[in-house]
Automatic annotation (TrEMBL), chain A:
Protein's name in the database: Dihydroorotase
Provenance organism: Nocardiopsis ansamitocini
InterPro entries linked to this entry: DHOase (IPR004722), DHOase/Allantoinase_Hydrolase (IPR050138), DHOase_cat (IPR024403), Dihydroorotase_CS (IPR002195), Metal-dep_hydrolase_composite (IPR011059), Metal_Hydrolase (IPR032466)
Gene label: pyrC
Function noted in UniProt: Catalyzes the reversible cyclization of carbamoyl aspartate to dihydroorotate.
A biological-process GO annotation: purine nucleobase catabolic process
Family: Belongs to the metallo-dependent hydrolases superfamily. DHOase family. Class I DHOase subfamily.
Keywords recorded for this protein, A-Z: Hydrolase, Metal-binding, Pyrimidine biosynthesis, Zinc
Lineage: Bacteria, Bacillati, Actinomycetota, Actinomycetes, Streptosporangiales
Enzyme type, top EC level: hydrolase
From TrEMBL, chain B:
Biological pathway: Pyrimidine metabolism; UMP biosynthesis via de novo pathway; (S)-dihydroorotate from bicarbonate: step 2/3
Name of the molecule in the record: Aspartate carbamoyltransferase
Matches recorded under Pfam families: OTCace, OTCace_N
Organism (species): Nocardiopsis ansamitocini
UniProt lineage: Bacteria, Bacillati, Actinomycetota, Actinomycetes, Streptosporangiales
Keywords (A to Z) from UniProt: Pyrimidine biosynthesis, Transferase
GO biological process, one term: 'de novo' UMP biosynthetic process
GO cellular component: cytosol
Gene giving rise to this polypeptide: pyrB
Record domain Aspartate/ornithine carbamoyltransferase carbamoyl-P binding: where: 2-145
Entry binding sites for L-aspartate: K82, R165, R219
UniProtKB/TrEMBL annotation, chain C:
Highest rank taxon of the organism: Bacteria
SUPFAM superfamilies for the chain: PRTase-like
The UniProt record lists the keyword rRNA processing: no
Molecular function terms from GO: uracil phosphoribosyltransferase activity
Motif (PRPP-binding): 108-120
Protein name per Swiss-Prot or TrEMBL: Bifunctional protein PyrR
Alphabetically ordered keywords of this record: Glycosyltransferase, Transcription, Transcription regulation, Transferase
Catalytic activity: UMP + diphosphate = 5-phospho-alpha-D-ribose 1-diphosphate + uracil
Stretches the record annotates as Disordered: 186-209
Top-level enzyme category: transferase
Pfam families cross-referenced by the UniProt entry: Pribosyltran
EC number: 2.4.2.9
Family listed: Belongs to the purine/pyrimidine phosphoribosyltransferase family. PyrR subfamily.
């Protein structure tokens, strides 16, 4: 990729503050301040746009290798750029599973070749996600992909001893285990949040306790062995309370929440349209409120999309037979603006922390989540907070269209994304 | 075109219209020509993804008595068993010009999904653990015939409420019709949010029986004990089975119902099932009349007579 | 009840028959039935809901008074045999009550309030055929307003009432409407249009159209 073009981003409000110009040259922020000289630079008009550090998503499914009909590393990273992301961490539940150095290096390399954002593979905790034997975690850590996060996402590491060992083992290379908290026996035949709606609809219940029990156990385990623990897609009020308690005890736990759990509730299942089927399931309005407050007060550290593309036929079917998951990369920032900023719970500096700086730190992604100051890598997202759009599933950059927001009016639009000084999105279009 | 997807979709007037219509249509079974020309030229597809001979033949008899053309489409040995999706099957039915589709499916919400994909009327003949509205209608019909009224009637529904589409539809419909329902089951076989349902709940059958005009026993699969819903079939029967002794606790006028298929010796003893106060055989007969009424009201006119 | 409303509206409807004339017409029909059926020993009267049913009952009472023996009467709903079912939303059914004597071998006198196109009578003949095999079927109507669309005629007519198709004929009966009268007014929307889904209103439409 050529690095010859110099860009002058004119009049952007850095983290929502006063307008300033940003000079991007040789992949870094070369200058920053009012009324910079435009000489030799291509101008990017950014009056009124908010400048954020390039967003980081530590939880996506890009389906390659194995389900290239739903998404590829190339299509998924384009969707990520479209959403303002400059780095994504891909989950291990591919086919073959990313449980060896070979597979993680393949994904990492595909990401580099695509060039839309940094694609950092997450390694499986157990072989084949089988939950029985540890995968070769060290080999993945030592590979070219330099894996630091490990997760059996989609499956819970439910065996307490295995979880303890994984937490301990990854300390050797500053790793972290990202747990998909789901007690398997309590969620047999689970289809949606267990409660009034599931009882009425006759759909198998996924009780909050199945998530909370695992989170409580793992926080205690992590504390006991002095390890770093990350909790994927927290979805219940009870989970928030447990994480808050664990942090108060000094447990080194971090947690993420998805945009959809910040906005949508289980009542959407009344249509039996599996576009709303996701794991963990959409919960109640009370849970949504608790998650928003937890993200605001730092109990939940960051936002991650759990972007989960599925082909049409996996969703145009009966609820019970449909795949779980929804895409989210291209709508994440809009949903966060709607749920957190427009409600007064977060300012743009807070969004930058939770969608860039903190997730980069959790994932140990060097060069991402850095402040927008002179000398830092030019990973920049320009966002038009005043724009508005009706979500159109067909126009998604992702290969899949399973967005639960289709037809919804959402605020904001990513105007441009820069990855180390190179625009991956300009004028709202993928470059 | 409207559908019958949930018993909860029926207003009091609509539910009463179905029962009154069924009452008139019941006469057809006793005539020399057991057939009405009403649905001549209309096509009704029985789309059965689950084996349920009794429900299928009940709908088939109802449709044929109304002179509809009936196409039976069972999942076994058809394109469905070869992996065809519900949506593709729906498009096939649509292309064949089905005016009504009666669907029995193992997945909750399948009837609702189907209604998005076909123009014809969809009749839910049981979807997973969700609902079975025509069963609730025929149960209400049977109660009204036996007891003369539904308003204020005290109905106990006993058994595996958690997995029962019959219970869900009955709770909704009986409430609309003014009856008082009490669900009786071990706590493991009740939904967690049952306290919010429009009915009473009890764990004690013996306490409920003397205060009941109607007792509806639901089938309980013995295999449920493998998932720890109860310790053993024997213990279930001892605590929740309707045997002769418990039957004697019922008021003189009370009747016993069962949607079938029943497991004699599990939830109901043979002597109770065969008693003159058991309505089990009538329920089957009434099922045809009620389904004729629903088919007529959904398909007989330019638009549905219910659900509008 | 719809008919009552129309009558009370004070619109252009005018009464062409009042209670006493209707009484006389029914009495005459009762005598004609006895005459034509030679004493009426095997006669069963079947009224077509809803207007025909009270008329059948009244005729039965009159014959009984003359002959001093009970005359079987009942009702025959023809909804399921109508040829215009698909032109209107699904309707509630009227009652069908066949007296215990049945219809096999009997002389059935169908009774309706208004004879118009003849389609109702056609449906009634089909319904009868599915119930059994009468020896003969005859037709009595309080009002014959003409405009037949089928080869059907009445055996007993209370009053021939030449009308325009742009007019409506409404029969009010004590048992249903609280008073007896036959009204002529401007045509109302026909069955198949809004507000005509109840049996109560169809009797007033004339010929169950």
């Amino acid at each position: 990729m050529s690095q010859t073009t110099t860009y002058l981003i004119r009049g952007a409000r850095v983290l929502g503050g006063e307008p300033a110009d940003i000079l991007v040259r040789d992949g870094i922020i070369a200058d920053l301040g009012p009324d910079l000289s435009a000489e030799g630079a291509e101008i990017v008009e950014a009056a009124g746009l908010v400048a954020l550090p390039g967003l980081v998503d530590i939880h996506v499914h890009l389906r390659e290798p194995g389900r290239e009909d739903a998404e590829t590393v190339a299509s998924g990273s384009r969707a990520a750029a479209m959403g303002g992301f400059t780095a994504v961490c891909t989950m291990a539940n591919t086919d073959p599973v990313a449980d060896t150095a070979g597979v993680v290096e393949q994904v990492w390399r595909l990401g580099r070749e695509a060039g839309y954002c940094d694609v950092q593979p997450i390694g499986a905790v157990t072989k084949g996600l089988g939950g029985e034997r540890l995968a070769e975690l060290g080999a993945m850590a030592d590979s070219a992909a330099r894996v630091r996060m490990f997760s059996d996402d989609g499956m819970c590491v439910s065996d307490a001893l295995l979880m303890r060992r994984a937490l301990e083992y990854v300390k050797a290379f500053d790793g972290v285990v990202a747990q998909h908290a789901q007690e398997p026996r309590l969620t047999e035949h689970a289809q949606m949040n267990e409660g009034e709606v599931s009882d009425r609809l006759g759909l198998g219940g996924w009780p909050a306790v199945a998530e909370e029990a695992i989170i409580a156990r793992d926080c205690l385990l992590a504390e006991h062995v002095g390890s770093r623990l990350h909790i994927c897609h927290v979805s219940t009020k009870g989970s928030v309370q447990i994480i808050r308690w664990a942090k108060s005890r000094g447990c080194d736990v971090t947690a993420e929440v998805t945009p959809h759990h910040l906005l949508l509730t289980d009542e959407l299942a009344e249509s039996y349209d599996p576009i709303y089927k996701v794991n963990p399931p959409l919960r109640t309005a009370e849970d949504v409120q608790a998650l928003r407050e937890a993200l605001a007060d730092g109990t939940i550290d960051c936002v991650a999309t759990d972007h989960a593309p599925h082909p049409v036929e996996a969703k145009e079917t009966e609820w019970a037979n449909a795949a779980m998951g929804m895409i989210g990369l291209e709508t994440a920032l809009s949903v966060v603006q709607h749920a957190m900023v427009d409600t007064g719970l977060l300012d743009w500096a807070g969004v930058a922390e939770r969608m860039s700086a903190i997730p980069a730190r959790i994932g140990r992604l060097a060069g991402h989540g850095r402040p927008l100051v002179i000398g830092e890598p030019a990973n920049i997202t320009l966002y038009d907070t005043a724009a508005e759009r009706v979500v159109d599933a067909a126009s998604m950059v992702s290969k899949s269209a399973n967005t639960p927001y289709r037809g919804m009016r959402l605020p904001g639009r990513v105007a441009a994304t820069f990855l180390r000084g190179i625009p991956t999105v300009l004028d709202g279009k993928v470059q | 075109m409207r559908h019958l997807l949930s018993a909860g979709d029926l207003s009091l007037d609509e539910a009463t219209l179905v029962l009154d219509t069924a009452k008139e249509l019941a006469q057809v079974g006793g005539r020399s020509v057991k057939k009405l020309p009403t649905l001549r030229g209309r096509t009704v597809v029985n789309l059965f993804y689950e084996d349920s001979t009794r429900t299928r033949i009940s709908f088939e008899a109802a449709a044929k008595r109304m002179s509809a053309d009936v196409i039976n489409f069972s999942a076994k040995g058809s394109s469905v068993s070869k992996g065809e999706s519900l949506k593709d099957t729906a498009l096939t039915l649509q292309a064949m010009g089905a005016d009504g589709v009666v669907i029995r499916h193992g997945a909750s919400g399948a009837a609702r999904r189907l209604s998005n994909w076909v123009d014809g009327a969809v009749l839910n003949a049981g979807d997973g653990t969700h609902e079975h509205p025509t069963q609730a209608l025929l149960d209400a019909y049977t109660m009204r015939e036996r007891m003369g009224r539904l308003d204020g009637l005290r109905v106990a529904i006993v058994g595996d409420i958690l997995h029962s589409r019959v219970a869900r539809s009955n709770v909704l419909l009986l409430r609309t019709l003014g009856a008082h329902v009490t669900l009786v089951a071990p706590p493991t076989l009740l939904p967690v949010s049952v306290a919010g349902w429009p009915c009473e709940v009890s764990y004690d059958l013996d306490e409920v029986l003397p205060k009941s005009d109607v007792v509806m026993m639901l089938r309980v699969q013995a295999e449920r004990m493998n998932d720890a819903f109860f310790p053993s079939a024997r213990e279930y029967t001892r605590r929740y089975g309707l045997d002769g002794d418990r039957f004697a606790q019922l008021p003189e006028h009370a009747v016993v119902m069962h949607p079938g298929p029943m497991i004699r010796g599990m939830e109901i003893s043979a002597e109770v099932a065969d008693s003159p106060r058991s309505t089990i055989v009538e329920q089957v007969t009434n099922g045809v009349s009620v389904r004729m009424a629903v088919l007529y009201l959904l398909l007989g006119g330019s638009e549905s007579g219910i659900g509008n | 009840m719809h008919a009552q409303k129309h009558a009370d509206d004070g619109d252009e409807s005018r009464a062409v028959l009042e209670g006493p004339e209707i009484d006389r017409a029914l009495t005459r029909i009762a005598h004609e039935v006895l005459e034509r059926t030679k004493g009426g020993a095997d006669v069963t009267l079947l009224g077509i809901p809803s207007g025909g049913v009270p008329l059948a009952q009244r005729l039965a009472e009159r014959i009984e008074r003359v002959e001093d023996r009970p005359v079987p009467w009942g009702s025959l709903d023809i909804t399921m045999y109508r040829d215009d079912l698909r032109l209107a939303p699904a309707r509630a059914l009227g009652r069908t009550e066949i007296p215990p004597e049945g219809i096999d071998g009997r002389t059935i006198v169908l009774v309706d309030d208004v004879l118009f196109s003849g389609r109702t009578v056609r449906a009634a003949l089909d319904a009868l055929g599915d119930l059994g095999r009468p020896r003969a079927v005859q037709l009595a109507t309080l009002v014959d307003r003409g405009h037949r669309e089928l080869p059907i005629r009445a055996d007993y007519v209370g009053k021939n009432l030449p009308t325009s198709v742009r007019e409506s004929v409404t029969v009010l009966l004590k048992e249903i409407d609280g008073r007896d009268a036959v009204l002529i007014g401007p045509a109302k929307p026909r069955a198949g249009h809004a507000g005509d889904t109840t049996v109560q209103s169809t009797h007033a439409e004339g010929d169950n159209r």
